[in-house]
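Re-running the complex after MR caught last week's input typo. The corrected sequence lines follow. Everything else is unchanged.
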Amino acid sequence: MQEYDAIVIGTGSGMIVVDRLLRENPDARVAVIDRDMAGGICLTRGCIPSKLIISPVEVIYDLENLSEFIDAEVKGVNFEKIMKRMRNKVESESRMIEKSLKEFDRIDYFRSSAEFTAPYVLEVDGKHIRSERIFISSGSRPLVPRIDGLEDSGYLTSDSLLHLEDMPESLVIVGGGYIAIEYGNFFARAGCDVTIIEMLPRILSSEEPEISRLVHQELSEHADILTSHRVVRIEKKGGKKVVHAMGDNGGRSVTGEEVLVAVGREPNSDILRPEKGGIETDERGWIKVNRYLETNVRGVYAVGDANGKHMFRHVANREAVIAYMNAFHDAKIEMDYSAIPHAVFCQPEVASVGLRENEAVEKYGRENILIGFEEIKSTGKGQGLNAKGFAKIIINRETERIVGAHVVGKAASVLIQEVTTVMALNAPFHSILHAIHIHPSLSEVISWACGNLMSVDDYHRKIEKEL
Amino acid sequence: MQEYDAIVIGTGSGMIVVDRLLRENPDARVAVIDRDMAGGICLTRGCIPSKLIISPVEVIYDLENLSEFIDAEVKGVNFEKIMKRMRNKVESESRMIEKSLKEFDRIDYFRSSAEFTAPYVLEVDGKHIRSERIFISSGSRPLVPRIDGLEDSGYLTSDSLLHLEDMPESLVIVGGGYIAIEYGNFFARAGCDVTIIEMLPRILSSEEPEISRLVHQELSEHADILTSHRVVRIEKKGGKKVVHAMGDNGGRSVTGEEVLVAVGREPNSDILRPEKGGIETDERGWIKVNRYLETNVRGVYAVGDANGKHMFRHVANREAVIAYMNAFHDAKIEMDYSAIPHAVFCQPEVASVGLRENEAVEKYGRENILIGFEEIKSTGKGQGLNAKGFAKIIINRETERIVGAHVVGKAASVLIQEVTTVMALNAPFHSILHAIHIHPSLSEVISWACGNLMSVDDYHRKIEKEL
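Corrected-run output:
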């Protein structure tokens, strides 16, 4: 049985472990297993291809906001070129990773499925391989719910969508989370007839309600959004798909050329048969890890989507570094999830870090929370761009630390970074007031929010009136 | 002679002193003097109106970069509406400030010129007023150089440009600094035939040379840029203006409907006759202040453009707070100019904080400087937007502090903020690596630059080859 210094399952963030180990230990031998295209989900069917597809429509929204001042006519998007660019970039980057995996003689690269057969032992390509350091970064896959008629009528997921050649004329999206909204926003602004059907009372339900509201409002100018509706049946009719949904006050049937199912993701780890390796998973199949990202089996780590914690590539990358340090440097580094930012690249853009208001209130008590708030249109640059949106900063009154921040509007994913870095530094919120911000720039919305603090109740009275 | 607790000259950042004093001391009496519209230069004829005018064309540049993917036709800008919106915003905000100045009975508001007649004594509206706390925030005005024929042919400045009703068909801009480039960029992208004539070998000469180069390259697709050319004569011919410029290899004559003179700014303080108040100015007329922003006359402070240091509203605001604290709280706070950001709102956008490379090398020695570099197109979001530009981070190798940062490209004025805040916190550059950045977002260009450090020589070899 071949013994390795490490077995890495998955070629996304797992590659960070591979790179570090080979750099630090010139004699190390590593087995790398991935049944899919090299590069992991983010590169091959996640954030990178989706951003390459959706980013161009940002400018359509900006133009719409400035239509009084800029005389322009948008005729449509060149879907074929958008998809071609996406595929070229993804394929060329994936090929580069594959090439390095194949060329490097201290790596055995298996482009296959693997299964645990015993603790520390995996079977792959008919061989048994063993290591006392195993890194599971096996990712996740689109969750496809059981809906009557779905399999028969056919559907897209965020994976198969990447193979589309032509833009559908109409698209029904099942789900209202970030993947549904990013693609819904793209297709709607690109000129496709989009209907979004969300089971919960609001889209982007893991964001602050006032953010969901603004996105809903802006997006509903171009897409039909049904909330509190559950898809109960799908049928094929005359080459199209009819989606039947039920709400509290009756049903709605929507017809579309294509259906995109985007209701969440589920773990890939079942394929690995972790139970045969003695590795515990939770009731949904995510691999359980401790604060050091180690599973219940010593030396076996799970990072990225596999552990089901924060399914973002930037989190997985950090987790991979920490797991590596803990595994090979006998470190006891805890993964800190307190300053993890994320964005939803729809228009207006959404970005968020740390706790939501209700989580902060629950953790620290209502009276210990201050909320800072400012609208983007208060800034001179925001006025210039006629930009909508706001920043909401949640502060622990006693420690003076920012515990969460939520931004919606132009450049939100960049605006959130100042707050994230201040949080990561564990610096007080007034560090942001101390730092000079360019006047007039969109950055001012963050510092002005930090200078405009109020109680939770006052905040709600304010947004009730003003938003 | 009326005695005041404070005399404030200028209603821009000076208003910060007025507000704080009246809030902290319910009995204080203040004289406020401004011969111009209330609100200061930034609001009435500087950054706010200019950003309201120029911001909309950003989207034209974005669209141009995405022309392969978005099928759109830009027919032009609605200049009338842009100017009307600008005037409405400026007038309404100025009126609000004026109203509060007039209504508040502890303020005597003089909308007039004033002159020192003795130390601590000013003459205004025929009255003599006196205070031992005087704040000079009298601003600056466009510098108009002596050019043969200029006065006779007529010209615009950044002040009078705000009164334009129609967009000129052609415009010759004398100067290549940030005002010249912001307006040159706007008019060129808006469809006006623009020629920019800069005396120095490059435009934006106070930015890093590689940034000047990229802006020059991008802007020259829409404007004619003459560097190393000196305007020697202007004449009126058939309703138009002919601008004669001389370069090293001969002359060029350019005809335009209008001429905009934007070669710099000069102090307004001469009007105040500071010498009669015993107040020293430098050879160009800027009021000399010490580290505490106090002039040579005890209790007399100069903030904002008046001291000629960093002519930005965000600096003036901070200076006003510090001068106030030093004057009324007997503090000895030094103004810290090490983390002052600024932006040039052209396309690609420019933003910068701290030292330039040559300043850093001179201050710390070439061997003690590391440069971090990354192109925006390396990031997934940058690829999605097909965005040009880069981030350059200058680090002191020994202290591990960022001493300067320079960004050109999409959202530069927001991207610079993370660096600025880290500098203001005096945190090491690796704080930025420690903070998680959203993948993929434009923010990654900053963290990747901080992770991609090289010597000054290697940096130049790299950009020589790659930029």
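None of the earlier attempt is carried over here. Chain A has 15 helices and 25 strands. The radius of gyration of chain A is 24 Å.
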